[in-house]
């Protein structure tokens, strides 16, 4: 695992004009606009049926046209196949019998700084990760999964409860890569123990890859892991008698820190959202 991968976005928040900028994470930084699709405008009283279905998180608008044409969408109990049909927000719209909610599903990726909590509870306090993405949406966005207050790196926020539940399911085991710094060098024998599978609380933890970071001291380790157990990376090193000084999540479910400085957020691209929807 290269050192450059673990340092994605770090240079962008450092030196500017020969001086270091003072960070102000507590106020929340502006989003990265390069991939920013924009906060959607409120839905009017009348909305095209395909947009209503797409906003409900079922599929894209183009795919919604196919579902409507096939008669899979009903409005107030009646199948609608007319392209361009408009519905009211108070109408009952169903897809394959499931009631739809027209609230726009939104997905925001944050590169979390150290010292900010990221919990599923409603929390917009000054030192919460939620406060950093508060301007990303008019809807309440909640983090997917957990990450420690002192850890840094990628956190996904969304108002898509169905996707969040699916991604949080232990059976999915999302791919995560961490850059870890220990208070002392990691012994080769302990590195091997992790590679072979280490028992944590009487249950063996399997990691996909663990190695020393290229061109770095032996107290810096990269780890790829799919386990969804709480604080499992921290607990692995606790079991071996090492103190974790820094832990940075540089990859999460295929999402990376590229062009995303610490303390900033961005909207996911349509392709990234589609990739997450493929996780069952």
Question: What can you tell me about this protein's structure?
Answer:
One of its GO terms (molecular function) is isomerase activity. Its EC number is 5.4.99.-. The protein has 280 residues and is α+β, with helices and mostly antiparallel strands. The chain has 2 domains: 213 residues, Pseudouridine synthase (2-Layer Sandwich); 54 residues, Structural Genomics Hypothetical 15.5 Kd Protein In mrcA-pckA Intergenic Region, Chain A, CATH 3.10.290. The chain has 8 helices and 19 strands. The strands form 5 sheets. Strands 9, 10, 11, 12, 15, 16, 17, 18 and 19 form a 9-stranded mixed sheet that branches. A hairpin with a 2-residue loop joins strand 13 and strand 14.
Can you give keywords for this protein?
single chain; 280 residues; alpha+beta; Pseudouridine synthase; Structural Genomics Hypothetical 15.5 Kd Protein In mrcA-pckA Intergenic Region, Chain A; 2 domains; 4-stranded antiparallel β-sheet; 26% strand; RNA-binding; isomerase
């Amino acid at each position: 695992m290269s050192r450059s991968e673990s340092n994605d976005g770090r240079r962008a928040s450092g030196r500017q004009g020969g001086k270091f900028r003072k960070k102000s994470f507590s106020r929340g930084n502006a989003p990265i606009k390069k991939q920013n699709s924009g906060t959607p405008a409120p839905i009017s009283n009348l909305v095209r049926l395909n947009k209503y279905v797409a906003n409900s998180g079922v599929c894209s608008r183009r795919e919604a046209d196919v579902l409507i044409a096939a008669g899979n969408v009903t409005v107030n109990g009646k199948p609608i196949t007319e392209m361009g049909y408009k519905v009211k927000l108070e109408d009952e719209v169903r897809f394959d019998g499931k009631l739809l909610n027209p609230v726009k599903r939104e997905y925001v990726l944050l590169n979390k700084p150290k010292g900010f909590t990221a919990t599923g509870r409603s929390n917009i306090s000054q030192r919460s990760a939620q406060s950093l993405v508060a301007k990303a949406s008019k809807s309440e966005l909640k983090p997917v999964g957990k990450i420690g207050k002192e850890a840094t790196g990628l956190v996904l926020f969304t108002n898509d409860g169905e996707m969040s539940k699916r991604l949080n399911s232990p059976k999915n085991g999302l791919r995560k890569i961490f850059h870890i710094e220990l208070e002392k060098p990691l012994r080769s024998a302990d590195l091997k123990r992790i590679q072979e599978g280490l028992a944590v609380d009487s249950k063996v933890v399997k990691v996909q890859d663990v190695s020393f970071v290229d061109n770095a001291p032996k107290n810096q380790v990269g780890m790829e892991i799919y386990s969804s157990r709480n604080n499992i990376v921290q607990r692995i090193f606790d079991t071996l008698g090492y103190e974790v000084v820094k832990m940075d999540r540089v990859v999460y479910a295929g999402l990376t820190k590229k062009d995303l400085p610490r303390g900033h957020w961005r909207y996911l691209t349509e392709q990234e959202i589609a990739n997450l929807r493929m996780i069952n």
